[in-house]
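W.,

You were right to be curious about this one. When I first looked at the sequence I had no strong expectations either way, so I just let the prediction run and decided to look at it fresh. Below is the sequence, 410 residues in total, followed by the output.
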Amino acid sequence: MDYFRLLSYAWSNPKDKTNITIENATQFSDRDFCFIILRKVSRSFAVVIEQLSEELRYPVCIFYLVLRALDTIEDDMKLENEKKLELLSVFHEKLHQVGWNVKGISGDAGESQYYYEMLLTHFDKVINEFKLLKKEYQETIADITQKMAGGMAEFVKKRVESLEDYDYYCYIVAGLVGIGLSRLFTATGLENYNVNDRDLSNSMGLFLQKTNITRDYNEDLRDGRIFWPTKIWSIYATNIGDLKNFPAEKRLPCLNHMIVNAMTHIFDCLEYQSRLKDINILRFCSIPQLMAMSTLSILYNNDNTFNQIVKMNRVQSVKIITSINDFESVLRWYNILLNEFKNKIPSNTNDELTENLREIIEKALVCVNNYGYKIGITSFETSKKNKLLPVTACIIIGSAVAAYTAMQFN
């Protein structure tokens, strides 16, 4: 069965082989360019977008491209701070300026750099399509873009010191994404207005972003970026870089402290997902959350985090992707992942940090059971197992990697 899942996953996610270059991009229509460049800058997310309703699919595509372009500017370490701040301050206004683009900016994204540069070089095509969206969608995208750019500008020179700084930074780069998506969900009429809850939407973004930041310690340190808050790491080291040379017993408590901080958002995330009624939006939102939940469990007490990118098992990813078909299946996965996490906690360890984590997981399991009771699940142990979706559904849902990285910009 695992081989079947992986085979259907690989078959349903072929690479986009469109021969598009910075030089020939003008030959493509604006709409074709937007979808082609979306697949180039985030092949995974492009597949995830395609399972959304027709009404929602294109606004989310443009939303992603706009914020991807903005993040490329913020992320380009070669760009002088003065120029970066200037672009960030006016970027939201440029969404209404026909013909605007900017050349020579590619961010810091390895093999994706060329396509990030292409996106900004031909950003006028994105603007043209943005201006064709409904006014309500335009207003949401422009508003979130302005707020995100303003926050990014603050952190061009500012470090993440306090826990308040940490929450604010994650709100800027991810919480605002969640808030914007919720506004789009409700604007289409596909979701009720109780989904458009600012605090819950923010928590959805914070949970994903804090998982990324915790996982990316080694990569960010190598690139000269520090997002772990000083308030946490300074408890364990004089300099955050020193953690790389510490023995496991001295640095793992710092890692686990970061994990506990991320886990505090799980209750809001569960409540948000419980409010979703559109199955495609539920998949779009829940799969990344479950991937993050699994990743935090893998990171816990994992000393490899300080030397490499720790990734979740590919088979596990595909299993999640191919079995999310309703809120019951979401709850069932939370029950599995939380229990796996709980079982990883050493029974003979009872320091304050470990007790906090144990308490969060226990409370989260109670929440999962309570949500289950509301929809008629009396026991996760005896009720039916997650069902594998048909191959056609796998094609629609797409990629496991997508679910984890979609709409995350750092």
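Here's what jumped out at me. The mean pLDDT is 88. And, maybe more interesting for your project: The CA atoms of residues 249 and 303 lie 9 Å apart.

Coffee later to discuss?

I.
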